Amino acid sequence: MTWVVGVDEAGYGPNLGPFVMSVVACRVPDPLADADLWHVLRAAVRRGADSGRRLLVDDSKVVFCGGRGLEALERGVFSALWPPLAPQTLAGLLDHVCPESVAELRGEPWYRGVTVLPLHAPHPELSEAAGCFTAACGGAGVEGWRSQSVMVCARRFNALLDEGGSKGTVLATALARLLRWSLLSLPRPDPIAFWIDKHGGRNTYAAQVQDALPETMVVARQERLNRSVYDVLGLSRPVTLTFQPRADAEHFCVALASMASKYLREVLMREFNGFWQTHVPGLKATAGYPGDAARYLAAIQPVARRLGLEEAAIWRRK
Exposed end of the chain (fewer CB within 10 Å): N or C? Predict the structure, then answer.
């Protein structure tokens, strides 16, 4: 058996709200280590181009579109990853899927964790979809689904910019935490194959992975535009990492990681907007991206000053 692990993020570009990166893992028979899990699990899942009631799993940009985008994200992540966890509050979910980030979130003035989940998808529908997904996985020998997320809010985001000089430091820090979690949490001796969405146009990641896993030796097998592949030596099992552009469109676990990250950020942005809207009546909600974020910041700055909040605690500089 092999652990197949996908890593992707959401919220890298905005100036407001948290950055979220997630890892999704499953254990597959060795012949399926390089298989297309959309095909293997086709009885229960579909891609954005397909029709039907099967579970939609795809790049979050494909899933999160149209009037029911958040509901489609919710149906996917709860049915495939968190079926025992619905319904509950946001705080309860985060205690389970990103415990290392809870303390940071509790320090945010806008975070309450009281949002009741799921927001839109009916619980019986989630149970049905989860049952179909579990049955398809069981028939194929796919098991052990796990996920974990990390979040970086504005204050720490800016501190990491100061420390590393670029936004890449934020990506590297989040990835390091998820790599270490995976190595500690995924039972041995099964090999681990990581698939990671490439960070911009960068092709070299050996130093970054080496810093994340200092007790190992990281060897570059390939560093090209279309793929960068690394072996991690010195562990009790084989570990490979593959960085690939648009990995969320080619690898099922990366797509689910993309969806988990996007869903968590969207729910957190609801709490972010709700907090500021109680202080600024009539304030239109924001997704936090450049352009609209400046409008929002200008509207909330007087309140932020009254609350004693510095701009660096709200506004991500890059």
Answer: C
Instruction: Work out whether strand 19-28 and strand 45-46 pair parallel, antiparallel, or are unpaired.
Output: unpaired
Do 166 and 299 lie in one domain? The reply is no
Task: State whether 134 and 283 are in the same domain.
Answer: no
Question: What stretch of H or E contains 89?
Answer: strand 88-89
Token look-up 């936004």 returns 167
Q: Distance between CA 260 and CA 242 in Å, rounded?
A: 20
Nearest to 247 by CA among 239, 233, 257: 257
Domain count, the chain: 2
The residue that leads in pLDDT, 20 or 120, is 20
- How does DSSP assign 182-230, residue by residue? HHHHSPSSS-EEEEEE--TT----HHHHHHH-TTSEEEEEEE-SS-EEE
Which residue reads 């303390």 in tokens? 103
- The answer to whether residues 288 and 245 belong to one domain is no
Same domain, 160 and 301: no
Domain shared by 147 and 191, yes or no: yes
DSSP conformation letters of 127-178: HHHHHHHHHHHHHHT-EEEEEEEEEE-HHHHHHHHHHHSSTHHHHHHHHHHH
CA 63 to chain centre: 14
Q: Which two tokens stand for residue 213?
A: 């896993």
First to last CA, the chain: 42
pLDDT at residue 122, rounded to an integer: 87
The pTM (predicted TM-score) of the whole model is 0.96
- CATH code for position 47: 3.30.420.10
- Read off the pLDDT of residues 126-138 as tens digits, 9 standing for 90 and up: 999 999 999 999 9
State the DSSP code for 71: H
Q: What are phi and psi of 46, to 5 degrees?
A: -145, 165
What would the pLDDT profile of 36-69 be if each residue is shown by its tens digit?
999 999 999 999 877 778 999 999 999 998 667 8
**Residue range of the domain that includes 115:** 2-271
